[in-house]
Design a protein that fits this description.
Layout: E1 12-14, E2 17-23, E3 42-46, H1 57-60, E4 65-74, E5 82-87, E6 90-91, E7 93-98, E8 101-107, E9 113-116, E10 124-133, E11 144-150, E12 156-162, E13 171-172, E14 176-181, E15 185-196, E16 199-209, E17 217-223, E18 229-234, E19 237-242, E20 248-249, E21 252-253, E22 256-263, E23 273-279, E24 284-287, E25 290-293, E26 296-297, E27 300-304, H2 318-331, E28 335-337, H3 345-354, E29 357-361, H4 382-385, H5 389-403, E30 409-416, H6 425-439, E31 446-450, E32 467-471, H7 483-500, E33 506-510, H8 529-544, E34 549-555, H9 585-594
Parallel strand pairs: 27-28, 27-34, 28-29, 29-30, 30-31, 31-32, 32-33, 33-34
Antiparallel strand pairs: 1-14, 2-3, 2-4, 4-10, 5-9, 5-14, 6-13, 7-8, 7-10, 11-12, 15-16, 16-19, 17-18, 17-22, 20-21, 22-23, 24-25, 25-26
Helix pairs in contact: 2-3, 5-6, 7-8, 8-9
Bound molecules: alpha-D-glucopyranuronic acid (GCU).
């Protein structure tokens, strides 16, 4: 799915701003609120989560539906163009209406969706209505415990408790755009690359739609960073050779531009449709226990993150993500994981430009019914009770379709902390892993971030993966305060994985401790900044001594909001920055360590 871009043949109109909004106690659909302008509405910014934008608890703790509405003006001059309405992401289910007519429904809160409105829209004023449902359950990604319980007063308590450790923000979270294309247009561009004696071989496939799709000439041109043509070809698929190619990698994020044009035969005046896709030429492979980027052993230094900030919650915020990626570079980091869901397209485009490597994760989190305290005494049968397979497949299809051309994306994370030690896990994941390998034209490596019950002795899926990713909290959830025990347990487990799956590289995808900023103690004690730093240091000693470890991602980049719980002090405090992005002691420790670790060859010869 192409990112909406203004080109010589396309226009984009951003519909961000203040929309009308109304919480729906439940009767909105029955009363067909979409058939007339929204009543009893309040102003609501788009993009943003709505949860912190009202002072009543009803906003923060709302479960179910809300309504958004705005006027959509279509200038007469656009008539005759193909008109498309595109949503960057709506959490978690969206029903879109235009002038009271149903337009599109989309399930999944972290990937874009679009609908052509050429036939439904009218010149001038249109009414755009979006019904957003934040309900999560055992069929959705992420997974939550949806319950309706009778109360003594005859009412029903509806609760939707996240089975994951972040606040279930909801709303129209990413930009909504109206964009135009000509009637015959470029629908998709698929790019792959290999290297040959210092040259880059770029394979391309172009999908064209519209009445003239069989007669137009497709021209593909590769331009270098100075805008000079370095290769060109025709046809809907082919391969172009870039002499002495500049490779994309951290520290050298060289981007070419792939320009695609549709021309009517014989016409040389102006092209019918054009689109430009930034593209970095690089190779990724896992071989001999190493993660190779452009054939060199890469060492991941970075963090798991969240899209999270006060007031707008999970809403798209250019200033915040520019700040975050800048801080990652300040740390000397070279990578991050999009924990636990796909991040905005704009983040991925910036990571390409900055040379930050990304592990791209689908929102498959909460797929374990025996992890959280609310699991209860009896052992649950996770893979019998969850019905997430269909949504999981859709999430994979949409993420790979969206991010397939990004040089920054080097690996797909198929899930975070699923019950891979339980009966049924392998049968659940095998088809999904096969699908991911089929869908990705670049055949990137796959991983799953494993929780602590998935050990070398109990895990049933990781032999199917390319990289072992471990979320480990020895010294926090296990033997809290006891760092020497933490080191012994971590060292032993890494060795056990090496023996269980020799030659498979290990990424420590999560490790860390909560630290309340400003809380200090000597000797270090839990929740102090000193303890957080000491735990990271203790882990680093073990990781440096283990050749199979190909990277370290601290949990988390910044403090972030969670649901209310006795174990969360206004959210999760494992950030190495506060929620407002102020550095804790640990940030300085990591900056010192990571600026001294090279991106490539760190463990060579160890
Ligand atoms: C888990 C999980 C995170 C969570 C973290 C924690 O590993 O992947 O989402 O925030 O532990 O408990 O802090």
């Amino acid at each position: 799915m192409l990112y909406p871009l203004m080109t010589a043949t396309r226009e984009v109109f951003d519909l961000s701003g203040i929309w009308q909004f109304r919480l729906d106690p439940g009767q909105g659909l029955a009363e067909r609120w979409y058939e007339r302008p929204l009543r009893q509405s309040v102003p609501m910014p788009v993009p943003a989560s709505y949860n912190e934008l009202g002072e009543e608890a009803a906003y923060r703790e709302h479960v179910g539906r809300v309504w958004y509405e705005r006027e959509l003006i279509i200038p007469r001059r656009l008539w005759g163009q193909r008109l498309v309405l595109r949503f960057g992401a709506v959490a978690h289910t969206a029903h879109v209406y235009l002038n009271g007519q149903p337009l599109i429904t989309h399930r999944g809160g972290f990937t874009p969706f679009e609908a052509e409105i050429t036939a439904l829209a009218q010149p001038g004023k249109n009414r755009l209505t979006v019904l957003v449902d934040n309900t999560l359950d055992y069929s959705t990604l992420p997974v939550a415990h949806y319950r309706e319980e009778p109360l003594p007063d005859g009412t029903r308590l509806i609760s939707d408790t996240p089975n994951f450790d972040f606040f279930n923000y909801a709303g129209i979270h990413r930009p909504v755009r109206l964009y135009t294309t000509p009637a015959t247009y470029i629908r998709d561009i698929v790019l792959t690359s290999t290297l040959a004696e210092g040259d880059g071989l770029v394979g391309y496939r172009i999908a064209v739609e519209g009445a003239e799709r069989e007669t137009v000439t497709v021209r593909v041109t590769l331009l270098d960073a100075e805008g000079r043509t370095v290769a060109a070809g025709e046809g809907t698929q082919g391969q172009l050779r870039i002499k002495d190619v500049h490779l994309w990698e951290p520290g050298h994020p060289y981007l070419y531009t792939c320009r695609v044009e549709l021309w009517r035969p014989g016409e040389t005046s102006e092209c019918l449709d054009s689109y430009e896709e930034p593209y970095g030429v690089r190779t990724v492979a896992v071989e001999d226990g190493q993660f190779l980027l452009n054939g060199k052993p890469f060492y991941f230094k970075g963090c798991g993150k969240h899209e999270d900030f006060p007031v707008h919650g999970r809403g798209f915020d250019e200033a915040v993500y520019v700040k975050d990626l800048s801080l990652l570079r300040w740390l000397g980091a070279n990578s991050f994981r999009t924990s636990h869901y796909p991040y905005a397209e704009e983040v991925m485009r910036l990571a390409d430009r900055l040379g930050l490597v990304v592990i791209d994760e689908v929102p498959a989190v909460g797929l374990h019914l025996n992890l959280s305290p609310s699991a209860g005494p009896s052992k649950r049968q996770t893979w019998r009770e969850l019905t997430t397979a269909a949504q999981h497949e859709q999430a994979l299809r949409e993420l790979i379709a969206r991010d397939k051309n990004h040089a920054c994306v080097v690996m797909w994370s198929i899930a975070n902390e699923p019950a891979t030690e339980e009966e049924g896990a392998r049968a659940y994941f095998e088809p999904l892993l096969h699908l991911a390998r089929q869908l990705d034209p670049q055949r990137r490596p796959l991983t799953i971030a494993l929780q602590m019950l998935a050990t070398p002795a109990t895990d049933t899926v990781t032999d199917l993966l390319d990289v072992i990713a471990l979320n480990r909290y020895y010294g926090w959830y296990v033997h809290g305060g006891r760092l020497e025990a933490a080191q012994a347990l971590l060292r032993a487990e890494l060795e056990a994985w090496r023996q269980r799956l020799p030659g498979k590289p290990i990424l420590l995808s999560e490790y860390g401790a909560d630290a309340i900023a400003g809380l200090h103690d000597e000797p270090p004690t839990m929740f102090s900044e000193e303890y957080q730093a000491a735990l990271l240091q203790a882990y680093h000693e073990v990781l440096d001594a283990c050749p199979a470890v190909i990277g370290e991602h601290v949990w988390n980049f910044a403090d972030f909001q969670t649901g209310q719980s006795i174990t969360r002090v206004q959210g999760n405090r494992k950030g190495i920055f506060t929620r407002e992005r102020r550095p804790k002691l640990a940030a300085h420790l990591l900056r010192k360590r990571w600026r001294a670790i090279p991106d490539f060859g760190y463990k060579a010869g160890k």
